[in-house]
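Sharing a chain and its predicted structure for anyone who wants a worked example. Both blocks are below, sequence first, tokens second.
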Amino acid sequence: MANAIPDQPDIADRVARQTLAGREAAYADEVRRLLDAALDVMRKCGTTSRPRVADIVAAAGLSNEAFYRHFRSKDALVVALLEDGALRLRSYLEHQMEKTQDSADQVRRWVEGVLSQSDDDIAATTLAVMWNGGGSGSGQAAGRHFGSAPVGALLHEPFAALGSTDPGLDAALAAHATFGKLSDHLWQGTQPSPAETEHIVEFCLAAVTRAR
């Protein structure tokens, strides 16, 4: 056989990459189907029963082999659900905050967006996932909302613009306070009043503007 042409990719490598690319797309689809199915099953079960892997696999229309190809346990799947939920919430809040250039209004939109997660449909799903994740009394969802840290980071920039001397710490404190109240409402099945929402907004703004 003739010698390989210099600087040309080996045919075996090229075919292998094509195979892996196709497999990657198929696997990504499997994971999304498992996540969506788990979310739907957990929502239906609520906080009265925890679905089995078999229930999630059946709802996704996949096999046990497909499940364990991506997740070593149901707990691992719940962790992925928590991460997915936090990313979705962060994306939603980023979109809301980008609608204004005013830093104080960005903080307001952040607080209102976080507390809007107590709306009935969203709350039922969120609470079910938290309940499944916190069943052992430990882990990401044990008694608190899972989006606090990644979503709280969105406050760094507006807090810095408002004069915070430590925007990272102030953002973490504001996130803990706001998500703490959200978790209270989720577990109690209630929603914050407009007055309570306004109070939390003012609390967050006061925390970073007090020195000024």
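Comments welcome. Residues 9-71 form a domain with the Arc Repressor Mutant, subunit A fold (CATH 1.10.10).
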